[in-house]
Amino acid sequence: MKGNLDLGKRGEDVALEYLLARGMEFVCRNARAGHKEIDLIFLDGNFIRVVEVKCRIYPYMTSPLSNVGTRKQRNLIKATQKLLSKGWIVKDGKKFDLKNKEVTFDVITIVFNGDFYKLNYIQNAFTPNW
User: Fold this and answer.
1) Long-range contacts for 91-98 (Cβ within 8 Å, ≥24 apart)?
2) Block mean pLDDT (10 aa), the chain, length 130
3) Rounded Cα gap, residues 123 and 115, in angstroms
């Protein structure tokens, strides 16, 4: 299991750098709502981007995106609803106002091959039925 945790952290690190380079404002990482977790949250203009990061090591049997099925989507939606119910998040002493913003559920898939990787960023990967 430690190998999967290391791979997940490595993938989140790469995704974090990628989204920061795109000019998004980092809110938090590994936000918890009960036992559910959101990998990354960013502000991007009037959008709150809830980002799920999925990684594989080449060669792989299944696509990383295949692990973001309906159950995972429901868990992300529930965690987001719980976190947003306050209307703000405080992280490292900074308060992020989350009111009057549209939520998007994005997925970043990363396939590592040694020191190289291929990243795919899917904005609006799924839409909740609020």
Assistant:
1) 91/27, 91/28, 96/27, 96/43, 98/48
2) 77 98 96 92 96 91 84 94 88 88 96 94 88
3) 25
Element (H, E) at 90: strand 88-91
- Specify the number of domains making up the chain: 1
Residue 49 structural domain:
2-126
Tell me the torsion sign for CA atoms 103, 43, 54, 91.
negative
Are 31 and 86 contacting, i.e. CB atoms less than 8 angstroms apart?
no
What are the start-end ranges of the H helices in the chain?
2-21, 70-84
Q: Which domain CATH number covers 72? A: 3.40.1350.10
87 DSSP assignment: S
Comparing CA positions, the residue from 92, 15, 72, 5 lying closest to residue 49 is: 15
How many distinct helices (H) and strands (E) make up the chain? 2, 7
